[in-house]
Task: inverse folding
């Protein structure tokens, strides 16, 4: 691409007035390696995206197919380090082959960085780029701004064609599972779901159909469960079978959720909570509460245990990140014991008072 061709291309693509403005704004903005490695078509596409960037909208991406699968990341102002971007791609099952950075300095002194990645999808089952393009775009941006965690569950964006919000359902259940003493690590859970994307998609569908107010006939839940159980018969790994079945059992033990609740600006809440009937949750340590509520967000996790429909509660910070449920269970047991002795003492007082009056 020759620099002398850029002005005529901009006038042709954007019109005389807008093309002249863009040429004045960007004529000295592109580096030499950009002109050597990019085409005029690419420059036009880049300018369209760069013009939409601002301090509030500081990130944009484009995933596209040429001879290889490529990802173009546009950043306004503050640059996301490459050491942060590469793990995001790895956790979305994309292996980076090469990266070309470009720095653009428009006339208004704004700093624009473009990272062009050549990537390979590490799953033999290829995805439909048209179907997952928007899903990938949304998930990638949410990972970068911290709205969702950067972990192996994000493989389900391309593998199972799930949204970032839908994947939070599975992630939140996995976090709760780890608190119940489940023997499998989070990475094992991630691998089991990624290896059986059809089951992962059906589990999310089961959850949504069960709790959505717009759900169809209740029989559809039974149909989804039957389909899941049928697919589980073909799972050869006993560990993966146990993990996937546990997700189904947890969803059946769930009584309520805030998944469909919206905040004032019609956005989903930043945290996800489940209310469980504890007696229906497999392999819970004794004693079993009556109910328990698990809360998850990327910033915090919490569990509230209730031994009765009306029970005392409070907030307590725990340093036991891996098993804070154990600490809360001990507190609940202490409350139950205190309540038992208090009630016994009150009964004894009533008995003594009656006896003295006689």
Result:
């Amino acid at each position: 691409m020759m620099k002398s061709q850029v002005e005529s291309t901009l006038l042709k693509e954007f019109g005389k007035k807008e093309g002249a403005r863009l040429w004045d704004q960007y004529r000295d903005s592109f580096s030499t390696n950009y002109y050597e490695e990019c085409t005029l078509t690419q420059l036009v596409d880049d300018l369209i995206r760069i013009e939409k960037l601002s301090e509030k909208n500081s990130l944009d991406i484009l995933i596209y197919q040429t001879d290889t699968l490529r990802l173009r990341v546009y950043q306004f102002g503050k640059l996301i380090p490459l050491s942060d971007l590469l793990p995001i791609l790895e956790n979305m099952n994309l292996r980076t082959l090469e990266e070309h950075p470009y720095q653009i300095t428009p006339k208004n002194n704004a700093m624009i960085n473009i990272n062009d990645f050549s990537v390979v999808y590490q799953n033999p089952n290829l995805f439909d780029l048209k179907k997952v393009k928007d899903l990938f775009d949304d998930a990638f941006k949410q990972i970068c701004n911290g709205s969702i965690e950067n972990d192996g569950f994000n493989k389900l964006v391309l593998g199972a064609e799930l949204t970032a919000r839908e994947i939070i359902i599975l992630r939140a259940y996995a976090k709760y599972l780890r608190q119940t003493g489940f023997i499998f690590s989070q990475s094992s859970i991630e691998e089991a779901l990624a290896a059986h994307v059809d089951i992962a998609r059906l589990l999310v569908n089961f959850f949504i159909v069960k709790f959505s107010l717009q759900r169809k006939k209740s029989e559809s839940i039974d149909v989804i469960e039957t389909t899941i159980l049928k697919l589980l018969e073909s799972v050869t790994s006993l560990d993966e079978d146990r993990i996937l079945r546990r997700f189904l059992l947890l969803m059946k033990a769930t009584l309520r959720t805030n998944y469909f609740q919206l905040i004032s600006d019609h956005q989903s809440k930043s945290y996800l909570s489940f209310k469980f009937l504890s007696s229906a949750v497999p392999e819970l340590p004794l004693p079993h509460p009556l109910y328990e509520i698990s809360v998850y967000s990327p910033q915090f996790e919490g569990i509230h245990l209730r031994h009765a429909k009306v029970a005392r509660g409070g907030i307590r910070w725990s340093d036991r990140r891996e098993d804070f449920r154990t600490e809360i269970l001990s507190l609940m047991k202490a409350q139950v014991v205190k309540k038992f002795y208090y009630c016994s003492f009150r009964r004894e007082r009533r008995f003594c008072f009656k006896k003295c009056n006689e």
Q: What stands out?
A: The chain has a mean pLDDT of 88. The first helix runs from residue 3 to 14. The radius of gyration is 27 Å. The first strand starts at residue 59 and ends at 65.
